[in-house]
Design a protein that fits this description.
The chain is an alpha/beta fold and about 220 residues long. It is built from seven helices and ten strands. The strands form two sheets. A six-stranded mixed β-sheet has the order 6-7-8-3-9-10, sandwiched between helices. A four-stranded antiparallel β-sheet has the order 2-1-4-5, covered by helices on one side. The longest helix has 16 residues. The protein is globular and about 50 Å long. The structure holds adenosine-5'-triphosphate.
């Protein structure tokens, strides 16, 4: 049996905006093992981004808990969650994760410093198909290049878990195919990959699809 890298138990998340209350997650539980590529699917507003934020320790659930490699990630001060995240989770979010004033290579190096990683920057950029673009600034990249630069930043610390929110949302089919190939090869190397996506192409490469509806996992 492969080890469980990420586990969530009975997650709840409420939001209150004025008089309006939203129960974005209602009792979500599952486990993901090393080497698994799991896709979180579901209609707009079903809770995918809220769930990924909790999985990555960027947000705190109101109920339930998140466990990373057997250590509780939720219900800790933000600085501790950030330290645990840096030790084991790479994140790619819908809005890109690059600093505009740093070059692509500078962004990767910054992420490496945070994660105390020594991966070779040139090798990493080559792996995501951005060899030769290391000295470009994010504003000089196309949407597809930005997505791959975001992936390089997320992979800079060689994280055990990669979490991506709609990573192929804006990409043409060739670039989507290429990015998916990278996520699949990541999982084949024994790393965990969790992707929220509407795309049928993304679902096709999944080992498992978790379908969310109104904040709950539903069986297909
Ligand atoms: N910060 C917030 N304040 C208030 N409501 C929120 C907040 N974040 C999310 N919500 C609500 O929680 C629900 C789940 O939102 P979430 O963004 O997780 O859905 P999603 O499945 O990722 O949607 P999409 O596919 O459109 O990105 C929605 O009803 C949303 O309006």
């Amino acid at each position: 049996m492969r080890p469980v890298t990420l586990a969530v138990r009975d997650l709840y998340r409420f939001f209150r905006a004025g008089d309006e209350e939203t129960l974005a997650l209602r009792g979500v539980s599952f486990e993901v093992t090393a080497g698994e590529l799991v896709v979180i699917a579901g209609p707009s507003g079903s809770g995918k981004t809220t769930l990924l934020n909790c999985l990555a320790g960027l947000d705190e659930p109101d109920g339930g808990a998140v466990w990373l490699d057997g250590r509780r990630l939720s219900h800790r001060p933000e600085a501790e969650r950030a330290r645990l995240r840096a030790s084991g989770i790479g994140v790619i979010f819908q809005y890109d994760n690059l600093f505009a004033h740093l070059t692509v290579a500078g962004n990767v190096r910054f992420s490496q410093r945070l994660q105390k990683s020594r991966m070779d920057v040139a090798v990493l950029l080559e792996a995501v198909g951005l060899a030769g673009r290391g000295s470009s600034y994010p504003g000089q990249l196309s949407g597809g290049e930005l997505a791959r630069a975001g992936l390089a930043v997320a992979l800079a610390g060689d994280p055990a878990v990669l979490i991506a929110d709609e990573p192929t949302g804006e990409l043409d089919e060739t670039t989507e195919h290429r990015l998916l190939g990278m996520l699949v090869s990541r999982s084949m190397q024994g790393k965990t990959v969790i992707v929220a996506s509407h795309s049928a192409n993304v679902r096709r490469v999944a080992d498992r699809v978790l379908q969310l509806r109104d904040g709950q996992v539903v069986t297909p």
